[in-house]
């Protein structure tokens, strides 16, 4: 009886191993391969990271690092790909980076070393803080055009 139980257990383990091997081979065969995003338009010789897209995918914000400077850049989808990135209207003076857009596109949060002396004088020590920017008025005007 014990011999029969071990035989059943060994058979079950062999079957599980066979299914696992088939599953691993299938995963290897269908694994997507990463590609450079928008080469020459957004991805290029200057470091870029932290892309965040508007809900419809038509606008992308990302940070671009050039030496000690960091800016949040903006690009718009066109018929031919993406527009030339430009520094976002709210960025460019401070070291802004790591943008993230709200799921509904109504605001953007990002990290910056900008000072807010009116509210943070007690702890404005030059370190980065998280900032929130409402995009609702801008997006409404942008999509109305």
Automatic annotation (TrEMBL):
<feature type="signal peptide">
    <location>
        <begin position="1"/>
        <end position="20"/>
    </location>
</feature>
<keyword id="KW-0732">Signal</keyword>
<dbReference type="InterPro" id="IPR011042">
    <property type="entry name" value="6-blade_b-propeller_TolB-like"/>
</dbReference>
<dbReference type="InterPro" id="IPR011659">
    <property type="entry name" value="WD40"/>
</dbReference>
<protein>
    <recommendedName>
        <fullName>WD40-like Beta Propeller Repeat</fullName>
    </recommendedName>
</protein>
<dbReference type="Pfam" id="PF07676">
    <property type="entry name" value="PD40"/>
</dbReference>
């Amino acid at each position: 009886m014990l011999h029969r139980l071990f035989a059943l257990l060994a058979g079950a383990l062999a079957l599980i191993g066979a299914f696992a091997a088939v599953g691993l081979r299938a995963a290897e065969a269908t694994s997507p391969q990463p590609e450079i995003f928008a080469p020459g338009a957004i991805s290029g010789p200057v470091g870029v990271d932290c892309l965040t897209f508007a809900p419809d995918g038509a606008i992308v914000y990302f940070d671009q690092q050039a030496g000690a400077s960091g800016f949040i850049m903006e690009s718009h989808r066109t018929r031919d790909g993406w527009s030339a990135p430009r520094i976002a209207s709210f960025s460019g003076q401070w070291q802004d980076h790591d943008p993230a857009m709200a799921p509904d596109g109504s605001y953007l949060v990002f990290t910056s070393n900008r000072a807010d002396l009116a509210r943070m004088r007690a702890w404005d020590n030059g370190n980065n803080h998280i900032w929130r920017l409402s995009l609702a008025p801008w997006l409404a005007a942008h999509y109305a055009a």
